[in-house]
Structure to design on (197 residues):
């Protein structure tokens, strides 16, 4: 860009490329420890990635009663922190959690240093009565990671573009969704499953 007097202005920001790994699997219904063990195997030997994305409700599968019998947030965060350190990457995915007052579908983003960011799903899927079991979030969250501003969103948020409107406040939106949606989107995009079983 040319300014008066032949001065030049540098780009507002320079963003390096990100290497992103998407993990999906048929989740073991309502069995957090089994799902974490499976993701342990999928994450073995993964290096050189910046972001690793797990599906919506990756510890339980999408279920209305998942929060009541879910793993504790501390247990999930400790597991995600260990994986973030092991892979030197941001680990992201949503889990059904019971908070002090409500159940939430919480998108967690955990850095290798242990910093935890979270976004509670705003738009609950009324056709499955999700709004009767979970409390909707009311805050957009932007996470800065390796020079990128990331907007985390969950599944049905996709149907509400005003919520994800880019006001030049983020560079990348990451939506997580349940297994079936991930499979359908992957098939449409021509993405094949991971070589790991």
């Amino acid at each position: 860009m040319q300014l008066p007097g032949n001065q030049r202005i540098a780009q507002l920001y320079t963003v390096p490329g990100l290497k992103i790994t998407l993990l999906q699997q048929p989740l073991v219904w309502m069995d957090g420890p089994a799902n974490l063990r499976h993701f342990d195997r999928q994450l073995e030997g993964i290096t050189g990635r910046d972001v690793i994305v797990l599906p919506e409700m990756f510890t339980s599968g999408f279920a209305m009663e998942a929060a009541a019998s879910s793993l504790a947030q501390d247990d999930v965060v400790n597991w995600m922190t260990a994986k973030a350190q092991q892979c030197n990457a941001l680990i992201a995915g949503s889990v059904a959690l019971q908070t002090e007052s409500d159940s939430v579908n919480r998108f967690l983003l955990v850095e290798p240093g242990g910093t935890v960011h979270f976004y509670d799903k705003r738009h609950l899927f009324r056709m499955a009565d999700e709004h009767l079991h979970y409390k909707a979030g009311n805050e957009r969250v932007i996470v800065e990671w390796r020079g990128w501003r990331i907007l985390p969103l969950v599944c049905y948020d996709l149907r509400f573009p005003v919520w994800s409107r880019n006001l030049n406040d983020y560079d990348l939106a990451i939506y997580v969704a349940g297994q079936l949606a991930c499979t359908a989107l992957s098939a449409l995009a021509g993405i094949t499953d991971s070589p790991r079983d």
